[in-house]
Amino acid sequence: LQSSTFRLTNKTFRITYGSGRMKGVVVHDTVRIGNLVSTDQPFGLSVEEYGFEGRIYDGVLGLNYPNISFSGAIPIFDKLKNQGAISEPVFAFYLSKDEREGSVVMFGGVDHRY
Asked: Where's the Peptidase A1 domain (predicted)?
C-alpha cells in the first residue's frame, strides 16, 4: 500500500551493518513518530537484506549527523528540528528492564520522570 505522499527516487544504496547488509533505494514520504511529523522525509527503503534472518526487528532509524548520511539527505532528527516540530536538538532513551513497562525514546527534550 503506497501513501499519497510517497515519492520514489532513482538513487540506490548498499549498506553493511555488523551482522548483515542491505540494498535499497532512497524514497521520500511523510513520517510520523508519535505526534511528530516530518514531511517529504528522505529515507532508505530496503529492497534486499542479507544476514538478518531470525532477528526480531523491522527496521533501523538513523539518528546520524547530516555530514555522514549515506544518501546526503537530512536525517529525520535534523529535519524535525528544521521544521520546528521539536524545540531542542536533543534526543534521549530510557531502556527499561521491565518488559511490561516498556522503553522510551524522547525527541526534542528529556522527560525527567525517567
From this structure: 1-114
Backbone angles phi, psi at 86, to 5 degrees: -130, 150
The dihedral sign for the CA sequence 83, 86, 91, 97? negative
Domain count, the chain: 1
55: containing domain: 7-86
Beta bridge partner(s), residue 112 = none
Q: Calculate the dihedral angle through the C-alpha atoms of 53, 59, 57, 62, rounding to the nearest 10 degrees.
A: 110
Radius of gyration for the alpha carbons in the chain, expressed in angstroms and rounded = 16
Instruction: Give per-residue pLDDT as tens, 88-114.
Output: 889 999 999 998 999 999 999 999 998
C-alpha cell at 52: 538478518
